[in-house]
């Protein structure tokens, strides 16, 4: 037990060090790009603004929405019924929250993909959005990727929250403890560990749709016709095996790390604000 406990906290000490070092490197290069006129216009930095803003808004609605739906489903069903059906509640809550969050994320993601794939298209995110709306209208310009985004994000978020919840329960079971009995720091460590597992599973589940989404907003991708026709053409051109495996190992590493960070930050912020994260519990015990 002591060996496991020591290994557990050593792992997360290393993870925190790596995570904050990674954040430092990202912000360093961000400010470097902003300071250097020549590098600022590099293709790789074009989508940074839409990415940061879009996923901040999406995360706000997603994590807050999952908590909102979990709490209200539990109130409606009762604690015992909710505990007996916590996985379906995780799945439905995540799907509902992600659908709402994607309505806000989709325009940012459309601008990001267009700016990265065609750096000469516009000089800023606002100019890019206005130009896309002027050329195709709001739905075609900013929401042409909404359907593939749903196919990507909803399974991804359902897997992420359901697996994280199950993994966290398993860790608490191994430690013979519960969230109420552990300190806030220990609970954050559990969230980080379960977040890594959830991120890897979610990355695998959503990878084919993510590949399609990265291609469909590029100019001329999939030819002409309806959205489903274009998606079918892109899938046929790319190959279904490549859709599922191309770039998957790197994405598992990235999403696993980011997901762990997301759950860790969410728990830390809630604790700092004096809020308590909702946990299912068996009222009969």
How would you sum up this structure, described in words?
The structure is a single chain. The protein is an all-alpha fold and 285 residues long. The protein is 81% helix and 0% strand. It has 11 helices and no strands. The chain has helices at residues 2-35, 37-40, 48-77, 79-84, 86-117, 125-143, 146-174, 184-216, 227-238, 240-245, 248-272. α3 runs antiparallel to α5 (86-117) and α7 packs antiparallel against α8. The longest helix is centred in the N-terminal third of the chain and has 34 residues, at 2-35. The chain starts with a helix and ends in a 13-residue tail after the last helix. The model is unreliable at 1-44 (pLDDT under 50).
Q: Number of DSSP helices? A: 11
Number of DSSP strands?
A: 0
Going by helix content, strand content and strand pairing, the class is: mainly alpha
Global shape: elongated
Helix content: over 70%
Please tell me how large the radius of gyration is.
21 Å
Low-confidence stretches: 1-44
Order of helices and strands: HHHHHHHHHHH
Task: State the separation between the terminal residues, measured CA to CA.
Answer: 25 Å
Major sheet attributes: none
Mean pLDDT: 78
Q: Please state roughly what percent of the residues sit in beta strands, choosing from under 5%, 5-15%, 15-25%, 25-35%, 35-45% or over 45%.
A: under 5%
């Amino acid at each position: 037990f002591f060996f496991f406990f020591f290994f557990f906290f050593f792992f997360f000490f290393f993870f925190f060090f790596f995570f904050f070092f990674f954040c430092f490197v990202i912000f360093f290069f961000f400010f470097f790009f902003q300071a250097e006129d020549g590098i600022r216009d590099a293709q790789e930095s074009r989508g940074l603004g839409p990415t940061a803003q879009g996923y901040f808004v999406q995360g706000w609605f997603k994590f807050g929405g999952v908590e909102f739906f979990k709490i209200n489903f539990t109130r409606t069903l009762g604690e015992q019924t909710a505990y007996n059906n916590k996985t379906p509640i995780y799945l439905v809550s995540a799907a509902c929250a992600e659908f709402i969050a994607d309505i806000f994320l989709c325009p940012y993601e459309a601008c990001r993909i267009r700016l990265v794939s065609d750096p000469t298209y516009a000089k800023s995110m606002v100019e890019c959005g206005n130009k896309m709306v002027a050329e195709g209208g709001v739905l075609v310009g900013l929401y042409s990727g909404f359907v593939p985004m749903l196919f990507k994000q909803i399974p991804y978020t359902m897997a992420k929250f359901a697996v994280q919840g199950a993994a966290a329960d398993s860790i608490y079971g191994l430690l013979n403890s519960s969230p109420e009995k552990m300190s806030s720091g220990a609970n954050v460590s559990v969230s980080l560990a379960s977040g890594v597992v959830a991120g890897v599973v979610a990355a695998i589940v959503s990878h084919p749709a993510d590949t399609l989404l990265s291609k469909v907003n590029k100019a001329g991708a999939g030819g002409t016709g309806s959205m489903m026709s274009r998606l079918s053409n892109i899938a046929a051109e790319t190959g279904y095996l490549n859709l599922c495996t191309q770039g998957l190992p790197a994405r598992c590493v990235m999403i696993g790390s980011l997901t762990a960070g997301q759950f860790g930050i969410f728990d830390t912020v809630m604790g700092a604000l004096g809020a308590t994260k909702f946990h299912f519990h068996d009222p009969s015990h």
